[in-house]
Amino acid sequence: MTGELRGGDRLFRETRELIEIESITGNEAAVMNCAERLLRAAGFDVESLPVEPGRRNLLAGPSGARVLLCTHLDTVPPYVPFREDAEYLYGRGACDAKGIAAAMIEAARRLLASGVRDFGILLLVGEEVDNAGARVANRTVRAEHVIVGEPTTNLLARGHKGVVAGRLRATGVAAHSAYPDRGDSAIHRLLDAIARVRAADFGRDPVLGSATVNIGRMAGGVAPNVLAPEAWAEIVFRVVIPLEEMDRRIAECWRPAPGEAPDLHLSFETIARMGPVRTAGLAGMPETVVAYGTDIPFLRDIGKPFLVGPGSILDAHTSGEKIARRELLDGAAVYERMVRRILAGEAA
Questions:
Q1: Residue 314's pLDDT is what?
Q2: Residue 61 neighbours by CB under 8 Å, 6+ apart
Q3: Which spans in 218-315 are helix H?
Q4: Binning pLDDT at 50, 70 and 90, where does residue 3 land?
Q5: Mind listing the pLDDT tens digit for each residue in 69-107?
Q6: Which of 28, 31, 307, 312 could be disulfide-bonded to 125 (CB atoms 3.0-4.6 Å)?
Q7: Do 252 and 298 have their domain in common?
Q8: Domain enclosing residue 206, as ranges
Q9: Residues 91 and 129 in one domain
């Protein structure tokens, strides 16, 4: 390891401490305890913001801080153990978003050491599932600006796509597969509906690009020689148009043609919903746009949002999730500079 990278020993150690604690959404208590210890060691007073029994957010810093650094500490399953080499730190949460939290804490130490005080850190639970922590924080936490950390390779993201996620259900009538006229296959109905979804136009935005669709999970039926009485598919749409228009276009995929009766065998239950987002810029910072969702739509009342962080989203949610040591160090420097510039009045 070079001398320059060796200067990040504390940052790398604290990233490791956070990664080594399994914190799949809903099981964040232990990692929040660790994060509270790190924040107090950095020199912060820390307040707990209860989310639900056994789950809490952390708010560190002075009351009424003008700028907040904010990210989440829950992760997707499955847990991936920590490992490292000369270039990377690996493990679940390395880039999404435990390494980011450690980089924020490192930046905070540097700011506090130089006498900067008018900022804080907000750490959240629940981002990977239902944004529960963000929703709770949005009710009471206030600042002028909030710098949200997600993996953007340290480029300032000027926006991200929204999300509509849901479960499409189909019902049918079971029958012997040798006599399909005696039944009605829910799987066949589901496949026809999915074909319409995949062929539909869900819009394009000049900045965010085209909407995308993923059929993530499917199940149904009782046996290969029986027409399926029920079936379902879980679908995620990445949204670039207003939600109301998106809802209309989704519904068109199973709305009957003029003169036809409604298909009562199909239903769509929405599980998650957020619109596309535009975020703030800062003069001179290199920019990007990302396709994934964040907590930002649920933090709208807290302050003007920025979106930036070390690591690549292409590594997030994978079995080889990782973050480069160099990117972590650069990320801490980015957060430090941004807080200084925003407090100096450079943000619009």
A1: 97
A2: 44, 45, 68, 119, 120, 121
A3: 243-252
A4: low
A5: 999 999 999 999 999 999 999 999 999 999 999 999 999
A6: 28
A7: no
A8: 162-274
A9: yes
